[in-house]
Amino acid sequence: MARAAVPRRLGDRLRWRPARLTDRRAESEVAHTLVLEVPGWPGHVAGQHVDVRLTAEDGYSTQRSYSLSSAADGDSVELTVQRVDDGEVSPYLTDVLAVGGVVELRGPVGGWFVWRPEQKEPILLLAGGSGMAPLMAMIRTRRAVGSRTPFRLIYSVRSPEYQLFVPELRRDEPGLDKTYLYSRSTPPQWPRPPGRFTASDLSSAGWPPDFEPTCYVCGSTGFVETAAGLLVAIGHHPGRIRTERFGPAG
């Protein structure tokens, strides 16, 4: 049987490329941002992810998917990786891989959970923990292109020490409203007690449904299912809710 031709652009994205670590930044006690130089990188859209492959000297290899946290910037990309203590890949990326070290990267992947600058509707970003990574790519892309599209971010984490991108998100940015929710412990004198987010939180910090915003929800499976359900319950159309979830491999 003859094989269907693979479009050159698609085939280019599906091949593995060497990616060299040029810098790393600690984002929290358990998360690092890796700055990778990827020669010939085809570019990406905010919200997409990549596959990362590690190969041992004996030939054994394993791979995981990680969201891109950077805006497109030439041959450089950024991945923000949270260490999973019993994981096979994340501990190596956060604790072992040294500047100058090389991994393999394939992508970018994904076309649904993306934000493009030509979108003009209001945007609601709802992040749970390390689900902030692809949403940060959207915020950075908005800034890089000078977009005036209004963004609202609701960022839910267990406690302040788990927040990512703290210095950058502390900056005032016109058209970007930020709300932080803490489920276990809060900063001193925080006005809201710790607890899981509610429909009231989404109503007060998000967009009214009649504004017809596009809602991007990223986090663990439980977080995403709860958040999407609450958004529908308060009146948002399911077709305007885009979700991305993560979890342990296997």
Describe the protein.
Its cofactor is FAD. It holds the Pfam family FAD_binding_6. This is Ferredoxin reductase. With about 250 residues, the chain is of the alpha/beta class. The protein folds into two domains: about 10-110, Translation factors (Elongation Factor Tu (Ef-tu), domain 3), CATH 2.40.30; about 125-245, Rossmann fold, CATH 3.40.50.80. It is built from six helices and eleven strands. It is globular, with a radius of gyration of 19 Å. The two termini are about 35 Å apart.
Chain-wise SSE layout:
Layout: H1 8-14, E1 17-26, E2 31-37, E3 49-55, E4 61-67, E5 76-82, H2 90-96, E6 102-109, E7 123-128, H3 132-145, E8 151-157, H4 166-170, E9 176-182, H5 199-205, E10 214-220, H6 221-233, E11 241-246
Parallel strand pairs: 7-8, 7-10, 8-9, 10-11
Antiparallel strand pairs: 1-2, 1-6, 2-5, 3-4, 3-6
Pfam family, one: FAD_binding_6
Organism: Streptomyces coerulescens
Protein name: Ferredoxin reductase
